[in-house]
Fold these 2 entries.
Entry 1:
Amino acid sequence: MSQVHLHLLITHLPVFGSLLGALVLAYGLWTRSHQTTTAAYILFIISGIGAGIAYLTGEGAEEAVEGIQGVSEQMIGLHEESASFALVSLVILGAFSLFVIFITYKNTAIRKTTALIALFISLVSFGLVARTGYLGGQIRHTEITNGNVQNDGGGEKNEKDDD
């Protein structure tokens, strides 16, 4: 498995992990379940690790596609810049989640406040990583960049053929 394969495979983890973790955390807060909130924190930690792996494999993925016709260097740059912000956000979320797991079992007085802070960070992180994924998809998925369905060679028409 190359860095390109690993990058494409792992990039979905931070997107879905941050969103799923936020939903699990919200449910844990609603039901007042410490086990559920802890599960959400673990999802956040895994998402942060996944973001780190995706970021580290991004350079190899860039090298593999930058010479392909139609691949925009500008789009790669936007994706890379967005990935930096998403990575920082998810690393903060993961580190904060480790802290919250520790204090959850040591101090019940600030448990809800730290959970709400983690929920806020997770929603911000999801927004950043979702934007990063969207920009990454535009690097090779022309159906996203120009808004048209492309002809797949199977005899189906695209929107331009109907005009």
Entry 2:
Amino acid sequence: MNPLTGDLPLHPALVHLPLGLAFVMPLLTVALLAGRRWFGPPVVGLVAVLQLVLVAGAVVAKETGEDAEGPAKEQGAPRAVIHEHEERAELFTVLAGLGFLALAGSTAAGTRRAAVPLLGAASVLSLATAVQGARTGHEGGELVYEYGAGVEKVGEAVGEPAAEPTQH
């Protein structure tokens, strides 16, 4: 039993940090790229640190998702949907990592002229990460709301009868 969450799975609680950051990062990277004033390595570095938090959160969410896979299969969630969700999560993590590398490179570049191409890459990668995060989250929601993955444990934890998963 987890001392923080009891029998509740960690994955649903942890996925929100990387997803939330994934939707904020395109705004920050575009602001750095399009700003009239060069904010310099300290500000770009701060944005890179936020991207690194996103990457770390994605890795942790992916690991806890793997822990939730067995119970989801036991509850009748289709293996194909679980596999698709896992594949999307892996791509999300890779895109976030590439975005971090671009931001770290632009921090190290030091001058706006040298940083702009890397900030452009970081902007594109952050947008791709956000899109992939939305797709991954949609698949996760489908697992919960259409197939009942994790619903039984949540219902039992609050003393309510478990919801029956819908069959397609």
